[in-house]
Design goal:
heterodimer, A: 373 residues, mainly alpha, 3-stranded antiparallel β-sheet, 3 strands, B: 308 residues, alpha/beta, 6-stranded mixed β-sheet, 4-stranded antiparallel β-sheet, 12 strands, disordered N terminus
Chain lengths: 373, 308
């Protein structure tokens, strides 16, 4: 009898539009009408901090160059003010590169977050699995086959990104088929991916050795992964694709939590495993392909960003939004380093690889210890 | 009782429950690749009791369980859930009625118990409705019922084997299904933890009225915790019924290739299987002298077990 006086009447509780409940302390609920979700304070905080960091780094990046601008000046321009010359330099010359870095970083990171979640293996990222290598091989093949002349024309705008995208998707499809054995097991996928990666790199190198020297130079620049040539004509389509696929991934990502429990458990929780896996993998390849098409194969972002994000939010697997923001921070930050550390501007892919290599070793050593423990 | 072929006939006796059977297998043939594992198998799962499938390694127990839970598409025949062919039902539909816990499932690193148990609500959730008050309540109840509410914030990978298995069973409970399939829920557990988990399974059906089908390796635990035993050999059911009717010296020899004695379990009164090995038997190498006057129940002038 005492219970009824202390507890609010159940019907009154459900009638409230916004409801906050914490019957299970680690999963506080936020409910607005028919919408309900778990309120994860740390996750939201980390995402907000990452977004601020990405934005500030972007401002720093936009101020860097032969005509340096301070962060307040850049902010002024972005807010709609500033001198005409400043506006031209920031908005027309530097912004495509800056936004390109954000888009490429976010796309690679989301692709990595998906493949790592699906395979339940932190090593399974598009650059380890050979998806990026497939995109590179296709792009280099196009450069080498068509020669220097035609690439400047129509093909430069559309052909190269499209070839990279198709190359990535085709590679992913073949790897998935080869890894399939009553379901895809993470470790098997990684091993087959490593094999495919090696073969595709060999193929790319063979094409480079046997091709015309001018084409090789062009291909080489592209292969290192560079944002130097970023223009709105590349960045805008990539941005739109990221927005569309990224949004879809967020919605489909609702099942990722259950998918991480293993194939059988996921299926007995009512998930159409093959459909979900196939669609999510296609989305990941699409994102990796878009990023590679826009800026060449920028290494290790897809591997490292989701792993960094999962440690920041302390989740049970790579979170999609936090990974995207981490990827953006990584690529924008690396691009700043690439342009300021040495008097010569380095390609951004060189910096991410230099930073990502040690991180890969750390992951390998750590996972090895875990097995032997 | 001595002829094994008569055991199949006792199937319906054990299924003498008031509820109609909800899970039925008809002419089921199962296999992987070109290997046929289960051939033309019929099974009626009695409702509201614990059914345990036993049989030697590789007899198709787990394969059968996978087919019953829609994880494996039959080569021929069908599994009927509430009269509908299970493979023609939508995965989500099945997941609201029937839950399945695979053998030795692995939780992702860092996943907390509360988060794991909440995953069980997936078939009832959507993108917009990820944590409704129903979900929260069901998860809370599932955590209480499995006695792991105080572990809710701990990562699953830090728990002991028994606690971990209870967390997974809790997840299956939160799924809210009437039928629960468990593939070797005691794998990797020591005897004490096995008993703890099986006591929990027992409560699922006795207190919560769930229908449980499980695969167990340990025959004595299977006898102890089942209302209905299904004995499989080489992809066929050779006996089914109440443990006391099914377990016999002949069955052990014929199905498991095990020479054993069957005595009355002094604790439960159910049959207790005592394997006869080559050594450590009265009067053989390593065995005690028969006349040592141990306080064994039924220790008369002859061996204290029935050798069939």
């Amino acid at each position: 009898m005492t219970d009824s006086t202390t507890l609010p009447a159940p019907d009154r509780r459900t009638r409230r539009l916004v409801q906050v409940s914490a019957a299970i302390p680690s999963r506080p609920a936020l409910r607005i009408g028919p919408v309900s979700l778990v309120w994860r304070g740390r996750h939201v905080l980390v995402c907000a901090a990452l977004a601020v960091a990405a934005f500030l780094l972007l401002c720093v990046s936009l101020g860097r160059g032969d005509y340096p601008l301070s962060v307040p000046q850049v902010l002024d321009v972005l807010a709609g003010g500033g001198a005409r010359l400043d506006r031209f330099i920031v908005l027309d010359l530097r912004l495509p590169r800056g936004i390109g870095a954000v888009v490429v970083g976010a796309a690679l990171a989301v692709a990595g977050a998906i493949t790592q979640s699906l395979s339940r293996n932190p090593l399974a990222s598009p650059d380890i699995l050979g998806i990026t290598a497939g995109a590179s091989a296709a792009a280099v093949a196009l450069i080498v086959v068509t020669g220097g002349g035609s690439i400047v024309g129509l093909l430069a705008g559309l052909g190269l990104p499209l070839a990279a995208l198709l190359g990535g998707l085709l590679t992913a499809f073949v790897i998935y088929l080869l890894a399939w054995r009553n379901g895809v097991e993470g470790f098997r996928l990684v091993l087959i991916g490593i094999g495919a990666n090696a073969m595709l790199i060999a193929l790319t190198n063979w094409m480079l050795v046997s091709a015309d020297i001018n084409d090789v130079a062009r291909a080489q620049v592209w292969l290192t992964g560079s944002l130097n040539g970023a223009a709105w004509s590349q960045v805008v389509p990539a941005g739109i694709a990221l927005a569309v696929i990224g949004t879809w991934t967020l919605i489909a990502g609702f099942t990722v939590g259950a998918l991480r429990l293993g194939d059988d458990t996921a299926r007995s929780l009512g998930i159409r495993l093959q459909t979900q896996q196939g669609l999510l993998l296609a989305a990941a390849c699409g994102l990796a392909g878009i990023a590679t098409a826009a800026a060449g194969p920028i290494g290790f972002v897809a591997l490292a960003a989701p792993q960094l994000a999962v440690r920041l939010v302390r989740a049970d697997g790579p979170p999609i939004v936090a990974s995207a923001l981490t990827g953006a921070v990584l690529v924008v930050g690396s691009d700043i380093i690439a342009r300021t550390v040495l008097p010569v501007a380095l390609p951004v892919g060189l910096v991410t690889s230099a930073l990502g290599g040690p991180f890969l070793l750390y992951l390998l050593v750590r996972s090895n210890r875990k097995v032997s423990a | 009782m001595t002829d094994i072929s008569t055991f199949a006939a006792t199937d319906t006796d054990a299924a003498a429950t008031t509820d109609a059977p909800r899970l039925i297998a008809e002419h089921l043939s199962l296999g992987y690749g070109d290997r046929l594992i289960v051939d033309d198998l019929d099974l009626i799962v009695p409702t509201g009791v614990v059914t345990t499938v036993i049989g030697p390694n590789g007899c198709g127990k787990s394969t059968l369980l996978r087919a019953l839970s829609r994880l494996l598409r039959p080569r021929a025949g069908s599994v009927l859930l509430d009269g509908q062919v299970i493979t023609s039902m939508r995965a989500r539909e099945v997941a609201r009625v029937l839950g399945m816990l695979p053998q030795a499932p692995v939780a992702p690193e860092g996943l907390t118990v509360a988060d794991l148990v909440s995953r069980g609500r997936h078939p009832h959730q959507s993108w917009l409705r990820q944590w409704s008050s129903d979900d929260e309540q069901e998860v809370g109840v599932a955590l209480e019922q499995t006695g792991i509410a105080d572990l809710a914030d701990r990562p699953v990978d830090e728990l002991s084997g028994g606690q971990r298995q209870r967390a997974w069973i809790s997840m299956a409970l939160a799924q809210g299904t009437d039928i629960l399939l468990l593939d070797e829920p005691t794998t990797y557990l020591d005897l004490a933890h096995s008993v703890e988990v099986l006591d929990l399974v027992d409560r699922l059906h006795s207190e919560l009225g769930r229908t449980v089908v499980m695969v167990l390796h340990d025959l004595n635990l299977a006898v102890r915790y089942s209302d209905h035993l299904v004995v499989m050999k080489a992809g066929r059911i050779v006996a089914a019924g109440a443990p006391a009717e099914v377990i016999s010296v002949e069955l052990l020899r014929e199905v498991f290739g095990l020479d054993g004695a069957v005595i009355d379990d002094p604790v439960s009164g159910r049959p207790l299987i005592v394997p006869i090995g080559a050594r450590h038997v009265y009067g053989t190498v390593g065995g005690a002298d028969r006349k040592e006057g141990r306080d064994t129940p039924g220790d008369q002038d002859q061996r204290p077990y029935d050798q069939g």
